[in-house]
Amino acid sequence: MTERIREFLRTRREDGPCVVIDLDVVRENYHAFSRALPDTRVFYAVKANPAPEVLGLLAKLGSCFDCASVVEIELALAAGATADRISFGNTIKKERDVVRAMELGVRLFAVDCTAEVDKVSRSAEKVGVADARIFCRILCDGAGADWPLSRKFGCVPEMAADVLEHGHRLGLTAYGISFHVGSQQANVNAWDSALASASAVFKECATRGLSLSMVNLGGGFPARYLKPIPGVPSYGDAIFRALSKHFGNQLPETIIEPGRGMVGEAGLIEAEVVLISKKAESDDVRWVYLDIGKFNGLAETMDEAIRYPIRTARDGDATVPCVLAGPTCDSVDVMYEKTPYMLPFSLEIGDRVLIEGTGAYTTTYSAVAFNGFPPLRQYVI
């Protein structure tokens, strides 16, 4: 917890859970990525936290933006980004949304099949755009990631050249390849095999007369939770080595799409203990109910993929295993039942708990008034 967040919470008077984002941490993270990969453009993944203050800061720092929807594109533009600094990175787009993005000036689009290429081509014709660029997302296994992203998005590398050639024949610019090594990727070498696949696609496209220019290295850069993680420079070194290994002296343009790694550690949630109970007197495990749960911003505790650091004013007291649960009347609103969380035995109803590393994917995953509970309140300082 930063001193700025500590001071803000000390004077906060409102009731209910909230997340506080420290922009100084976001700024430091942006500079860390820029230093680690100085020849790579940063496209912040807006979905991680689309707060206008976050986007505005990053726009001023020179960041580009990876957007998954027209709304996110409009948010990036409103924050000060120009359309040439925006990628429509979702491979699943309604054609009318592609049209709208082009009307707003966006020219860079992700695809992973010929049907998506057709949408971009028809949209370009409709809007009168002659310079639309496409990049094809390929599958990779995501080994080492807490959230592998290995099936929903992307095609097998062997199919990518066909997708890009199809776009070229329709008048689009076949621009490059993208992949994602999985969210919260702890293995700095995870990019190596994906870059090998990307290099193979570049070579196959060259035999077809297509000169690709760009590799989108995706996201995956982790935030610090309970497990130690490598620093950003370690990722930069490993990625540069892999690029040199697979592309030699003909290095492509590169972009990265940090989201969690940019804002995760900038945020902290303050929540309240609503109830503490047992299911039987003989149980060793206690249930600690908070005023926040899976539907109020902690969706990434699903399958216990993310284990957030939790702090209390009673840390240092003897601890007992606890299952955490949210306030809603839904039986899936339970966290850490498989591996209970060790919390102070002295914890009481009404105590505040601080959940660290919650700057990413909390407000965006917070449901709108499920059971009447309002969306997670956010303060950006």
From TrEMBL:
Q: Gene3D superfamilies from the entry?
A: Alanine racemase, Lyase, Ornithine Decarboxylase, Chain A, domain 1
Q: Which domain of life is it from?
A: Bacteria
Q: In which pathway does it act?
A: Amine and polyamine biosynthesis; putrescine biosynthesis via L-ornithine pathway; putrescine from L-ornithine: step 1/1
The EC number on file is 4.1.1.17
Which CDD domains does the record cross-reference, listed alphabetically?
PLPDE_III_ODC (cd00622)
Q: Where is the active site?
A: C329
Q: Where is the Orn/DAP/Arg decarboxylase 2 N-terminal domain?
A: 25-263
Instruction: List modified residues, type N6-(pyridoxal phosphate)lysine.
Output: K47
GO cellular component terms, alphabetically, are: cytoplasm
Q: Which reaction does it catalyse?
A: L-ornithine + H(+) = putrescine + CO2
Q: What is this protein called?
A: ornithine decarboxylase
